[in-house]
Amino acid sequence: MKGQISLKGQPVSGSSITLWQTQAGQSPKQLSTQRSNKSGAFSVEVRATQGVVHYLLAQGGDIGGSSADQLTMLTVLGGDEHQQVAINELTTVGSVWPNAQLLEGTALEGSQSALAIGSSQVENLVDQSTGRFGATLLKSTNLLNSETAARMNVLSDLIALCGQPTQSRACDQLLALTNSENTLSAMTSIAREPWKNAGALYQLFQSSYPINKATQLRTTATAPYLLFQPKSFSLSLVFDGGGALGLGKLMFDGKGSMWSGTNWMPGSQSGVVNNIGGGVTHFGPGGTPLSPAISGYNGQGINGVGWGTGVSEKYAWVGAFNNMVGVFDLKDGKALGPATIDGEVGQLQGVATAANGDVWIADNTANHMIHFPGGDYTQGERITIDGLQAPFGVAVDAQNRVWVSSSYNNKLTVFPGDAPDQAKTIEVNLGARGVAVDSTGHVWIAQQSNSPQGALPPGAKMPPNIPANAPQPKTIMEEFEAGAEYLLANPNITQTGMVGLISPDMEVIQQDIAKGTAYIPWGVSVDGNDNVWVGNLYGQSLTHICGVNPAKCPAGKTTGDVIHNYQSGVIQMTTDVIVDDAGNLWSANNWFDGDVVINPTYRGRTSTFGGGQGFVVTYGVAGPVQNPLMGPVRKSR
Questions:
Q1: How confident is the model at residue 219, as a pLDDT?
Q2: 144 to each of 127, 138, 405, 569, 570, how far by Cα in Å?
Q3: How far from chain centre, in Å, is Cα 424?
Q4: How does the average pLDDT of the chain come out, rounded?
Q5: Please, are residues 616 and 589 in contact by the beta-carbon 8 Å criterion?
Q6: CB neighbours (10 Å) of residue 107?
Q7: What single-letter DSSP state applies at residue 341?
Q8: pLDDT single digits (tens) 347-381
Q9: CB 21, CB 53: distance < 8 Å
């Protein structure tokens, strides 16, 4: 590979450039070191090897006759560099954010799936061959609907402070704000906690790149830059294709691929009144769609999937709207189902896989659980369990106890996986959704009202056609329609619902977590630090909550505190957020336009705006986990 190292377009000469290789289970290995020449050029030989990730680390150098000792830059290779490679401030930002949780100093380490995800995501942010923005970021939705490009430019210009002799004091400020020794560690620090010191970092950018009165531009800054102070320097990209419209629950397999059932078919005018259901979508670790663009995987007659997606060792499972369980081969998406069940079932929702391989699915409209012992999709058992009323979210703990939320009562039902007749219930707030178990056995639950009786926040009202104690709907879409009507009936409300925390011995510890931030919280996931992430549906955000171990939280935060609420123009009404093996967040855009979701009549040019568009990856902010999720969360190996 022919390489070029530069900063703000100027060559960096005499930089120490090291080629590293890393793979799962081994410490990174240094392959070669050289110095860039006067024009910033270098060359490097790379042998592509399955399961091996290469990266280039550049330290120091000379720019325009001045040394830059605190400048450290990075390019993580994805294998498609086409005989040339760039190292600059933008490749550093684009390489750090997807790999932030895998970087320790200059060492990039992680599991095989973590390294596959981290390295393959880089090209979405930056083109490693040219050192300019990546193709995914340049897609209209990402470029026009998010701050990602502008944030990356500001971050790049902060790196450049450490390569300009007139900015040495500003460089020192950057390193002090991030408690870092060089620009690489500074960027890693910002990527992991992008909300920390965001205001001070932006002020540093503004003071270092003043406005030219003649042009009214920060002429030495890279455009487009941020005109307003950001709430954080998080970077998010949206991905589409593969049949992805109105995704419900997301799940990863053991190779870093994402699977999700889809509410509706892309290109259709679907909503909660009139709809054409979708199939199953499948994306590779780098966000490349592997399933067909419109139908997704199907072949089993599936007509839409709600919040029912699960992954076991060999299969992807979906609970469909049309009364069946779909099963797909993880290797190629081949249809293997529908699953065989020993009785009639209703419309289905949550899916969970236990550590022993058992699969449990919530029969939402018929109030049953469906059990597949050992994950055998030909041996489905329909089980009646007291306490269930529209069962929705399912999770399994390390004791093989199954925790099931009900969306139409105030009970969380818990039963031993091998003795479902011994079920017990816990009183929670009315209308629960997602359930997740952390590594200590504590359970987190999303609750869509403010009390066990369903209390609404001050000023909120129920839609006029929905009684206070509405009966359980006959279909899932009827329930979703009622939820959409609540949204439209309360245009000034910004908070409804809370997150609950329950101990392993089934005692309620906290019920009002994220009150004030939560607005119809939905999916709940736990990361490798046992901190909690919530897909905040109507709030159109990803809410980060301090878990049961405050030592793993930022200073001053304790169990149940909101750490940050992530938002972006590409994050729509989201029903789920999950953590990949590299520590990135993947979230489901479920609804797009609330007015169009209720679609009894034609809506003109917006008639296809009901379903949420694709899914979003927010980089580097979570503790890595080991997927697939089988039982409670597992920290990445």
A1: 87
A2: 19, 9, 39, 9, 9
A3: 32
A4: 97
A5: yes
A6: 12
A7: B
A8: 999 999 999 999 999 999 999 999 999 999 999 99
A9: yes
d(CA 592, CA 605): 14
* Residue whose pair of structure tokens reads 């684009």 in the numeric block: 94
Amino acid at 159: I
Report the SS3 class of residue 414: strand
Question: Any residues with CB less than 8 A from the CB of 380 and at least 6 apart, and which?
Answer: 325, 339, 340, 341, 342, 370, 371, 372
Residue 207 phi, psi dihedral angles, 5° rounding? -70, -25
Structure tokens at 167: 């900015």
* Strand stretches in 546-599, DSSP E: 562-566, 573-579, 585-591
**H or E segment at 488?**
helix 476-489
What size, in residues, is the chain? 637
Q: Which of helix, strand or coil describes residue 277?
A: strand
Q: What integer pLDDT is reported at residue 468 of this predicted model?
A: 75
Distance CA(295)–CA(318), nearest Å, equals 15
Q: Among all chains, which residue has been given the structure tokens 């991905």?
A: 239
The confidence band for 62, taking pLDDT boundaries of 50, 70 and 90, is very high
Phi, psi at 206, each rounded to 5°: -60, -45
The pLDDT, as a whole number, for residue 469 is 77
3-state secondary structure of 288: coil
| Phi, psi at 177, each rounded to 5° | -65, -30
Nearest to 542 by CA among 555, 523, 515: 523
CA 325 to centroid of chain Cα atoms: 25
Q: What is the pLDDT of residues 382-407, one digit of tens each?
A: 999 999 999 999 999 999 999 999 99
Burial (0-12, 13-18, 19+ Cβ within 10 Å), 227: exposed
One-letter amino acid of 149: A
Peptide bond into 210 cis (omega under 30): no
